[in-house]
Amino acid sequence: MTEPAKATQRAGAGHRQPTHGRIVAELSFGFWRFLLSRRYLTTLWIPTLQNAFPNTDLDANSLQRSIENDDQQLHFLRNRAAHPEPLLRRDLHDDLDRARRVMTCISPVARNWLDERQLVSDVVAERP
Q: Is 123 exposed, middle or buried (0-12, 13-18, 19+ CB in 10 A)?
């Protein structure tokens, strides 16, 4: 079963209507990471996907490379954190900057939302 089919099934669990929003919410981070890959440059990025990141002056090729690289690193970080592996040697400020870059490309409002809620800066400042 494909990831979108699984997401649709999860979105419709408990006799709920599997709405577009619920399906998107059920898609895994891994799904988005691979959807953003260079593999889909000509089939998705150039015709459509670049429009999901309207707040940038980068051309489609540069934008795709930048987003894929940032997303790949954030996916790696998320997996390390989810499987309680040490993050002590990571530059967490760099990771936060990656998340900020992606969010800024999507929406300045999304970037502000992230900045208002992130705790990384405070936690890193307290690092012994």
A: exposed
Tens digit of each residue's pLDDT (9 = 90 or more) over 101-125? 999 999 999 999 999 999 999 988 8
What Å distances lie between residue 128 and 84, 92, 97, 119, CA to CA? Answer: 19, 14, 22, 16
**Do 46 and 60 meet the contact criterion of CB atoms below 8 Å apart?**
yes
The pLDDT mean for the chain works out to 92
Residue 25, Cβ density class (10 Å: 0-12 exposed, 13-18 middle, ≥19 buried): exposed
d(CA 19, CA 12): 8
In the structure encoding, which two tokens stand for residue 44, read together? 């998705």
Q: What are phi and psi of 92, to 5 degrees?
A: -70, -25
Contacts 24+ apart (CB under 8 A), 34-39: 36/64, 36/67, 36/68, 36/71, 37/68, 38/64, 38/65, 38/68
Is 13's pLDDT higher than 70?
yes
Instruction: Compute the C-alpha angle 32/33/39, nearest 5°.
Output: 105
